[in-house]
Design brief:
- It is built from twelve helices and six strands.
- The chain is α+β, with helices and mostly antiparallel strands.
- It folds into two domains: 140 residues, C8orf32 fold; 56 residues, no CATH class.
- Helix 3 crosses helix 6, helix 9 packs antiparallel against helix 10 and helix 11 runs antiparallel to helix 12.
- The chain is elongated, with a radius of gyration of 21 Å.
- The N and C termini lie far apart (48 Å).
Amino acid sequence: MNAIDGTTFAVEVAKAGEGLNPIRANLLLAREIAYPGLRPSETLTALADLAEEAARTLAPHASPTARALQLAEYLFSTLGYHGNRQEYADPRNSYIHEVLTRRLGLPISLSMLFVYVAEQLQLPARGVGMPGHFIVEVSGDDDSIFLDPFNGGRKLAQADFARLISDSTGYAGTFNPRWLRPTPPTEIVARMLNNLRGVYISLEDWPLAARVLERLRELQPDQPSHLRDLGLVTYRAGSPRRAAELLSQYLNLAPEAKDADAVRQNRDMLWDELARLN
């Protein structure tokens, strides 16, 4: 058994710390949320094969940015990886093993696929989580380029950044250059999980939404709001006692939170409901 097949998301997070690999984390959370039979090692092998195939298409002595553009051409034009505009809310768009085989994904999942393959080819690529849209930065010898995997891996010009944010969020204010800073790996994984939370809640798939929130708790244990949200989702999943316990834990950790009174009222209503059942 490959080592990754025998570990868990929580163990991976604890061991890796700030060095968490988003692809490995994604495969583990996929298995724990929706794909219990998934073998992460098989997807990692397929990604290694993809990188090996891509390497044959890159000019060996070209600059890093030139090689990155060649990689984008191979992945998004030759192989046809692209953004799933028609079914953006399909949860499969968020799981790397599905993205790899279906060649469809979200901005963040396609970006992480590109970054992972680029890293196998010694290309300095990093994910950049702008508001509402995820892109990739590749550092060159003298400058950097930004690529948009969701939109065919095309190279972005300065004017494109504000347009992409406006298209996805409606924001029309001043562009903040800080939005182009590389996103830390743990924040990337949190963003993936938050996407899945939104999808499963919109589908009213409460058990899977609860599993997503459990992974968020493992990733960000210092954020009490995950306990609150898990409690509310757990209630919708049909477990009122567990929901009340989770809301109590939230109130113990955040007694002065702005929503503490409302949460306390909901928690007390749950206990009253449970008492009437006994």
